[in-house]
Amino acid sequence: MAERVLITGAAGFLGSHLCDRFIAEGFNVVAMDNLITGNIKNIEHLFGNKNFEFYHHDVSKYVHVPGEVDYILHFASPASPIDYLKIPIQTLKVGSLGTHNLLGLAKAKGARMLIASTSEVYGDPMVHPQTEEYYGNVNPIGPRGVYDEAKRFQEAMTMAYHTYHDLETRIVRIFNTYGPRMRLNDGRVLPAFIGQALRGEDLTVFGDGSQTRSFCYVDDLIEGIYRLLFSDYVYPVNIGNPDEITISQFADEIIKLTGTKQKVVYKDLPKDDPMQRQPNIDKAREILGWEPKVSRAEGLKITYDYFKSLSEEELYSKEH
Ligand code: NAD
Ligand code: UDP
């Protein structure tokens, strides 16, 4: 019998790529999502597959899955700043109550549970690049606190289930990831810039553009998560691409890539926007034998082709 994996947040950007990977590896996939920020189109192609089932459910409410479950990957959560500012309470609930429900399910089923944590647990970091040992610099009551603290609680709860209930757990700290199936209007910098270029609008750089990020292509991330799940390492592991760039430089790259004639316009920097971010991935290299393979130039080209293939309606949609 094939092993069975429950993926929450399955209709989202990362969840849908995880579904594809686990189906390709021969697993039975149980996908769960309440579609609050996801899109069913991301997994529609799997609906005819006999190894795939979908539950439309909010995981912050009691989660019931009949039958055996061997692995749970908890990826449900709004993930972009404009999403979690719009739905702050749901964000806190899915990271806390949702995680608790799924840990309870994992315990009842004897499943191994992996949670999607984030570089946001480091907040606006005072240590650079960020190692897993750094405790972070988070403002709990700032606008990003609803996401950051939910994720920090999620890690604490997961470690507690490991320590006190002997549950098999894994924690991945994901750094900015991009690729096909990101939502064009989710407010994250890459879809924002590419969407603006495609619509003939100016590119909006927040602040003076000197803040940095390090962007990882989605296939690299999925490979890292896959390896972590099947490793025996229970502490958090950073997965990301250490190739760091300022947001101004990033805007220039998108202008070149798209050939847009538009210019950059500067807007206020959102409160608590981290000034620098770069993963230290020594642990992933040592423990998982993993490092990213896809350069930003290659990854951006694939992602741009995806966004170009969207309909006019999707390009101008303000939904979500
Ligand atoms: P996404 O918004 O595309 O996907 C999240 C999915 O979760 C959506 O389909 C949404 O409908 C679903 N969801 C939200 N709340 C739910 C609930 N209560 N019940 C059921 N489903 C719910 O975001 P993403 O980029 O795919 O992020 C997935 C996960 O990875 C999140 O947990 C996020 O915090 C984490 N993460 C992502 C990144 C990144 O760069 N993409 C970085 C760090 C961490
Ligand atoms: N950003 C920007 N213009 C935009 C959207 C985002 O300059 O239209 C900046 C944002 O202020 C941040 C960086 O790009 O410094 C990355 O933002 P994103 O929302 O993608 O991710 P996060 O801040 O969560 O890393």
TrEMBL record:
Give the record's membrane topology: Single-pass type II membrane protein
The entry's family comment says: Belongs to the NAD(P)-dependent epimerase/dehydratase family. UDP-glucuronic acid decarboxylase subfamily.
Q: Which organism does this sequence originate in?
A: Fulvivirga lutea
- Protein name per UniProt: UDP-glucuronate decarboxylase
Ordered alphabetically, the record's keywords are: Decarboxylase, Glycoprotein, Golgi apparatus, Lyase, Membrane, NAD, Signal-anchor, Transmembrane, Transmembrane helix
A single GO CC term for this protein reads: cytoplasm
Location(s) in or outside the cell: Golgi apparatus, Golgi stack membrane
Mitochondrion as a keyword of this entry, yes or no, is no
Molecular function terms, GO-annotated: NAD+ binding; UDP-glucuronate decarboxylase activity
Biological processes annotated in GO? D-xylose metabolic process
Which superkingdom does the taxonomy of this entry point to? Bacteria
Output the InterPro entries linked to this UniProt entry: NAD(P)-bd_dom, NAD(P)-bd_dom_sf, UXS-like
Every copy of the NAD(P)-binding domain together lies at: 6-302
Describe which pathway this protein belongs to, using the record's wording. Nucleotide-sugar biosynthesis; UDP-alpha-D-xylose biosynthesis; UDP-alpha-D-xylose from UDP-alpha-D-glucuronate: step 1/1
Mind telling me which PANTHER family this protein's record contains?
Answer: UDP-GLUCURONIC ACID DECARBOXYLASE 1, UDP-GLUCURONIC ACID DECARBOXYLASE-RELATED
Is Transmembrane helix there in the keyword field?
A: yes
Q: What cofactor does its activity depend on?
A: NAD(+)
- State where it is primarily located: Golgi
Q: What is its EC number?
A: 4.1.1.35
